[in-house]
Design brief:
The chain has one domain: TIM Barrel. Helices cover 40% and strands 15% of the residues. The chain is an alpha/beta fold. An eight-stranded parallel β-sheet has the order 1-5-6-7-8-9-10-11.
Length: 354
């Protein structure tokens, strides 16, 4: 069997054969939410979506325009048409990070998350075999966040989407570890996305540097915090955890972290193993945009721990889904198929669901 037989035609043209062959685990949605509904979360700076009536819109933060967007972000029919054009069978749809609401009062954030989760479920209901809904939670309160996961799973959500930190608390924080353990108990995969990047005051608005530099650094910080903070030692092996944006700068700098762990006791104080010993405890997506970078990422993580992720529908994402995977000569046909869909089927347990 050739690669084309397995996953369908390469490139953007044509839809691959049915059977959930190409699965994008990193795709965002912002359902139609009015400004009045956004005030469930906050009285100022509330997130809402302004639709212009011509297939374009604007993500809003109160009165401020945050980002121009197109209909694929809120219109499931437009999204499915785009998936067909680009050969994507399935997307896991998660909220846009602007919607997290971690700075709000916990009770208001819980009500907001319930509204968002209901809208995401309604969005995915237009094609339940192709759109996998991921819930969001009020991560600033462990009890409320855990309750939200339990309720969302019962309602039909297939996983949880969280930001990589809450204020100064990263995923090695005891409360966040407790939440992740609850997700493992519920059998809910967790997708971790960078947001609220540090250093923005130094980078300013120049050249989108917070996205180009800050996102990679935030993701690496999250992963190393879990490794060196002993979080993986405290979490069950059943937890399914995926970091977006290829794990950020983690893979490239893993040798630096291992060297520090070997040579400085302050680095290994809370971690009985070097960072490289924990690469089998999480997944990353493939959003690195360069076959050479993907080759290194697969060498570090293993081909069973990398999944297609595009950051759809934003323009800094992979505009031709799977093109980096298909262009990576270091991958065998079987490994290519695993990255394009096989690993995600296991991550979301789609065979059992089917």
């Amino acid at each position: 069997m050739t690669l084309t037989d397995e996953i369908g035609p390469a490139g953007a043209g044509g839809r691959p054969p049915s059977g959930n062959n190409v699965i994008d685990v990193h795709a965002h949605v912002f359902p139609l939410i009015s400004r009045a509904e956004g005030r469930v979360l906050a009285d100022e700076g509330e997130p809402w979506l302004r639709e212009n009536g011509d297939g374009t819109g604007m993500m809003m933060s109160g009165d401020a325009e945050y980002r121009p967007v197109a209909a694929e972000l809120w219109d499931p029919a437009a999204r499915l048409a785009a998936m067909d054009r680009s050969g994507v069978d399935v997307q896991a749809v998660s909220s846009t990070p602007l919607m997290f609401g971690y700075e709000a009062e916990p009770e208001r954030a819980a009500d907001w998350c319930e509204l968002v989760n209901d809208r995401i479920l309604a969005y995915a209901s237009h094609a339940p075999q192709r759109l996998l809904p991921l819930c969001q939670v009020p991560l600033q309160d462990t009890g409320l966040a855990s309750a939200a996961v339990t309720k969302a799973k019962a309602a039909g959500h297939r996983g949880v989407h969280i930001g990589n930190h809450v204020g100064t608390r990263y995923p090695d924080d005891d409360a966040i570890v407790e939440f992740l353990a609850h997700c493992a108990e519920e059998g809910m995969p967790v997708l971790v996305h960078p947001w609220d990047m540090f250093g923005e005051e130094r980078m300013g608005g120049r050249y989108m540097l917070p996205w180009l530099v800050g996102m990679a650094a935030e993701t690496q910080l999250s992963i190393l915090s879990m490794m060196l903070g002993g979080a993986f030692e405290r979490l069950p092996g059943s937890l399914k955890l995926c970091f977006c944006h290829g794990g950020g700068s983690f893979a490239y700098l893993l040798g630096r972290a291992d060297n520090a762990w070997r040579n400085r006791d302050i680095v290994r104080r809370d971690s009985p193993k070097p960072p490289s010993a924990y690469t089998d405890r999480f997944y990353v997506d493939s959003a690195v945009f360069d076959p050479r970078a993907l080759r290194l990422l697969v060498e570090v993580m293993g081909p069973e721990r990398v999944m297609l992720g595009t950051d759809f529908p934003f323009p800094l994402g992979e505009l031709e889904p799977g093109s980096t995977i298909r262009a990576c000569d270091a991958l065998s046909d079987a490994e290519c198929a695993a990255l394009l869909g096989g690993n995600a089927r296991r991550f979301f347990d789609l065979e059992t669901a089917r």
